[in-house]
């Protein structure tokens, strides 16, 4: 959850740098292709984080209902 929030915040900041005139004037020396490539990497990272979190939740193994020792009482 924390990683997703950080990635979403970085995506929003990077998108605002691409689209906003005020922020664009502050980062005018940064090449536009660098910002676009960082945006793509952030989106890919967010998707991979979401995918791996979902896979981890699906692959969780629960051993709560397993009886390791079945002791039968002796019949008399």
Main β sheet profile: none
Helicity range: 55-70%
Give helix and strand order, one letter per element, not per position: HHH
Gap from first CA to last CA: 58 Å
The number of E-state strands comes to 0
What's the domain count?
1
Compute the number of helices: 3
Shape: rod-shaped
User: Which class best fits the helix and strand makeup?
Assistant: mainly alpha
Oligomer classification? single chain
Radius of gyration over C-alpha positions, nearest whole angstrom: 25 Å
Question: Which segments are poorly predicted (pLDDT under 50) over 5 or more consecutive residues?
Answer: none
Average pLDDT value? 79
Question: Beta-strand level of the residues, as a percent range?
Answer: under 5%
In short:
This protein is mostly helical and 76 residues long. It has helices spanning 2-19, 21-26, 32-58.
Q: How does this model look, in words?
A:
- With 76 residues, this protein is an all-alpha fold.
- The protein has one domain.
- It is built from three helices and no strands.
- α1 runs antiparallel to α3.
- The longest helix is centred in the middle third of the chain and has 27 residues.
- The chain starts with a helix and ends in an 18-residue tail after the last helix.
- The model has no long low-confidence stretch (mean pLDDT 79).
């Amino acid at each position: 959850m924390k990683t997703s929030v950080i990635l979403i915040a970085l995506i929003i900041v990077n998108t605002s740098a691409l689209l906003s005139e005020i922020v664009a004037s502050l980062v005018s020396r940064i090449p536009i292709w660098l910002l676009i490539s960082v945006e793509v990497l952030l989106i890919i990272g967010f998707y991979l984080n979401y995918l791996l979190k979902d896979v981890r939740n699906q692959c969780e193994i629960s051993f709560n209902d397993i009886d390791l020792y079945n002791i039968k009482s002796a019949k008399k």
